[in-house]
């Protein structure tokens, strides 16, 4: 139904092809998908909302070209007290409100002790604190290259929304290209892509123009998550074997949780966030892969 409401005709066409194939194996689940008063009406609703919001946003102008950025735009001021209260909840006989009041009146040492009890002895990054960490939330506005975005987009236990891909937020060449003397070639190719994008955007529209944008151009998106998911994302995506672009996003998220939000207990508990040198980490990973290949021969 969502594919039927998409602005691109090819997406709508593939949606119909998928529906045809799915009806061969699960027909009873799809009886209402193309009924006029059910699935078709739902698709019309989605399309109408998209068109209305697109029109409302069209008069807002554009933001100037910018480089990669991570900005923590929203968070819970009292997050750490909320986490401690939520951690005590299943073991107590107090209400949610009562527990938050009790925790707020504790001294710092007692709050820290209970928080450390919640986190426990994490032997590795897969040992995640419990449901209490789902109480606070963080919302980040992010600009990074499209390739890194596609890796971060795979995370599911969060809210993610993105703007159309374009060439208007700039791009940054990989360090290796500059070091090898291919900086001018990079600029030439990216300029050609920019000119082609603007031509297609003017002639056909911004949805179709996305097809010609290389992965190296930046995209702007938001990610909103609770602290438990922040553990998973920042610790996983900052590992030395990861790509430098999303490693930077992950470590910057962690830094802002600690410094901008002031949630030092939460940030310090994310002890497997890795700030180590990116290139060295990737080199070590390649060496490990080579050892495994040699061993398997």
What are the main properties of this structure?
297 residues, alpha+beta, 13 helices
Based on Cα principal axes, name the global outline: globular
Order of helices and strands: HHEHHHEHEHHHEHHHH
Helical residues, percent:
40-55%
Question: Could you tell me the mean pLDDT?
Answer: 92
Distance between the termini: 50 Å
Quick structural overview:
The chain is 52% helix and 10% strand. It has helices spanning 9-22, 39-58, 79-88, 96-104, 108-119, 146-152, 175-179, 183-203, 206-209, 227-237, 244-259, 264-269, 278-296; strands spanning 69-75, 137-145, 159-162, 218-226.
Describe it for me?
Helix 3 crosses helix 5. The protein has a four-stranded antiparallel sheet with strand order 1-2-4-3. 52% of the residues lie in helices and 10% in strands. The longest helix is centred in the middle third of the chain and has 21 residues, at 183-203. By secondary structure, the protein is of the alpha+beta class. Among the domains are: 1-57, no CATH class; 70-140 and 220-296, no CATH class.
């Amino acid at each position: 139904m969502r594919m039927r409401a998409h602005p691109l005709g090819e997406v709508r066409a593939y949606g119909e092809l998928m529906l045809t194939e799915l009806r061969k194996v699960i027909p009873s689940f799809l009886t209402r998908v193309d009924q006029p008063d059910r699935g078709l009406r739902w698709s019309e609703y989605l399309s109408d909302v998209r068109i209305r919001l697109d029109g409302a946003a069209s008069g807002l102008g554009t933001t100037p070209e910018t480089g990669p950025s991570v900005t923590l735009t929203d968070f819970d001021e009292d997050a750490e007290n909320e986490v401690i209260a939520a951690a005590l909840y299943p073991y107590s006989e107090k209400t949610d409100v009562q527990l938050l009041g009790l925790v707020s009146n504790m001294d710092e040492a007692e709050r820290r002790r209970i928080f450390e009890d919640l986190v426990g002895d994490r032997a590795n990054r897969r040992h995640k604190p419990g449901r209490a960490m789902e109480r606070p939330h963080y919302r980040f506005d992010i600009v990074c290259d499209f390739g890194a975005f596609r890796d971060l987009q795979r995370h599911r236990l969060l809210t993610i929304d993105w703007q159309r891909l374009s060439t208007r937020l700039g791009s940054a060449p990989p360090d290796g290209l500059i070091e090898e003397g291919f900086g001018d070639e990079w600029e030439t190719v990216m300029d050609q892509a920019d000119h082609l994008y603007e031509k297609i955007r003017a002639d056909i529209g911004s949805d179709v123009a996305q097809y010609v944008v290389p992965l190296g151009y930046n995209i702007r998106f938001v990610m909103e998550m609770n602290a438990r998911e922040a553990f998973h994302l920042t610790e996983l995506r900052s590992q030395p074997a990861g790509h430098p672009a999303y490693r930077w996003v992950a470590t910057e998220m962690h830094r802002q949780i600690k410094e901008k939000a002031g949630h030092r207990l939460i940030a310090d508990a994310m002890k497997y966030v890795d700030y180590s040198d990116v290139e060295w980490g990737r080199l070590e990973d390649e060496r490990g892969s080579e050892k495994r290949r040699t061993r398997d021969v």
